[in-house]
Design brief:
The structure holds two protein chains of two kinds.
Chain A: H1 3-25, H2 28-57, H3 61-64, H4 67-96, H5 101-123
Helix pairs in contact in A: 2-4, 4-5
Chain B: H1 37-49, E1 58-65, E2 68-76, E3 93-94, H2 99-113, H3 143-148, E4 161-162, H4 171-177, H5 194-207, H6 212-224, E5 229-230, E6 247-249, E7 252-254, E8 260-261, H7 264-267, E9 270-271, H8 273-284, E10 288-289, E11 292-293, H9 297-304, E12 322-323, E13 332-337, E14 342-348, E15 353-359, H10 367-377, H11 395-402, E16 404-408, H12 417-423, E17 426-430, E18 436-437, E19 444-448, E20 451-454, E21 460-466, E22 469-475, E23 483-485, H13 492-529, H14 539-543
Antiparallel strand pairs in B: 1-2, 1-15, 3-9, 4-8, 5-9, 6-7, 10-11, 12-13, 13-14, 14-15, 16-17, 16-23, 17-18, 19-20, 20-21, 21-22
The chains are: A mainly alpha, B alpha+beta.
Amino acid sequence: MTRSSSETQSRVRTGDQRGDLRRRLGRPAWLARAVAVCLCLVSLAFVALVTAGFVVAGQLAVITRPLPLRVGLVLAPVVAVLAVGTVGGTLLAWYNGYWSRAARIHQTVLATLALVFVWQLVSLGFLP
Amino acid sequence: MFLSGAAGVAGLASLPGAGAVGSDSAERGGDSPFEDREEFEATTDEILSERIGDDTPGATVAVVDREGLRLAKGYGVADVETGAPVEASETAFSIGSVSKLLTFTAVMQGVERGTLDLDADVNTYLTDSAVEIPDTYDEPVTLRHLGTHTAGFGALVNPGMVERAADLRSLERVLAENRPERIRPPDETVAYSNYGAALAGHVVAQVHDTTFEEYVQSEIYDPLGMDHSTFNAPGADAVDRRASPHAPAGDGFEVPERVHINWRPAGSMTATVTDMARFMRAHLADGQLDGATLLTPETTAEMHTTQFERHPAVNNGGYGFWEYGRPTEDLIGHGGATLYFLSALVLTPTHGVGVFVSYNSRGAGSPGAVTEELLREYDLGFEPQSPEPLASPETKTRAERVAGEYAATEEYASGLGGLTSRLGHETVAATGDGRLTPDDERTFVETEPYVYREVDGIDVLAFDVTDGAVQQAHMSNAPQVSFEPVPTAERQNVVAGSLGVPLAGFGLSTLGYGGLGAWRWWQRRRGVSDGESEESPEPAAEMADFDAREEFE
């Protein structure tokens, strides 16, 4: 295979992937689950960063706000948005019958946990 | 707050400048608990030597009695990088909230002059200011409320600390821009308020048509001869020699950037210990010092006596001062804490003794423990008690009734306030035999209904109980706040569960998604090797491929 043909094939593959992503973004079922995945990852990152902030600065972190804490605080509203998205995706999943029943139950559990988690974020002052 | 801390074993000799540095102890005797000057200085040295190097790299100590300055002495170093020793009469420390004593002294000077009224609405003094206190409740906020921390303000987690001197602003601006909510009616309970103290300083400045810093300079520093003190106004020259801030780092200390305080009347003062000794002497001598009048004897006594009583069995608050030590004694004082300095000032007017200690670090121990140990050594109000338990069949029932989780009335209202408040919850446990344990180290026995005294200590726990329900709890060693039962939804175990269960679910789901994606990717890849497919999606992309109906079947 020549270099030019390799580059051409690479561009074709990249284009395919972009097209694949666009195709998936247009599917509510895929979006609903992707939002839930993001919720899990961002929530875990949020807790890890806030914990790191307090490990670095102790209780004074609420005043000194070390970098990990500041980054974590930025993620708090993202968690809230993703939680709302997860709840919406769950409602759509049941209404439209996305996935299997077990997958929908799992998504429902995640949405419930997301609401509890956001309630605590509000209660603890991470969200207005 | 007066926090006691564990003192490590330190070596004075291991630090440059340690030992009898900067000592200018008075050569006086007479009517003093410290008759043997050398023995007293040796006792002080021993108490500090246990702490220098472990709790703090440097400390400065002043002790006064009716004869005058008994001891002013620096210990350790003012800066670990330069090794400069602490000189009592030269090295200025940030004294944090001890500054409030000067602020409220300034208020009482205004009351004596007739320019201020303790019971007038503070808004009447703010007509030319951008600061205005809202009429959230029928009762207005007064200077009496500010001096007793009963105004009912919510607390802000950052009392105006900024990283750069360039960020210092006028007091009017910072108070107008950072006003906390009024969350309780005035006079309902004690809730320590930095904002309230800063507001009191602003009122003083407004009615005297000057700045707070200029007022203190002309009416307190100059008359008392406090030549090495400043409230660090924006643009003002710093005192010549300031102790550097320190933070624990490994086995030692490092020098962080100095922080600056915008709410200056609440805690921005820097002073040498000899200056603080003059302030203490004036308060112990009915407001007089070397021909200068700080306050009249009547006003001085008013500041020192109880102005707001939480409960008769515990320490309460005077005007600006907090009662301290055993509740039956007359000790008063104030603690101070900035990010990197800790201070404690204690007066015992009956004995005419005052002690001030400041650290240039915020480590494990506190200067409050030094003042406590020193005063206990001379039987001045910290001797442990052996309380006689109340013989009552109801004791066990009452202990179980008051056991539970409590939150301080100093409620943080914004920012990370909820988290800060939750971290500060106190749990009182009943031991099953009528005693209480508010922590792992201390036990309290009931000596009268709903009043519990510490065994081999000085603290007292008292509860207000109405119709069998606890309304408030009061800890004698924490006169700045009271405590209230925590609603179920805000208890620490509920919060931990409400965070922990979702996080466990998120973590397990993430593992599940990842595992499933990896498994499917592996299946596809195996298919490629079997010649079934040319392309294999990446695991991450596969992980998110959830649009198939058969997923998770």
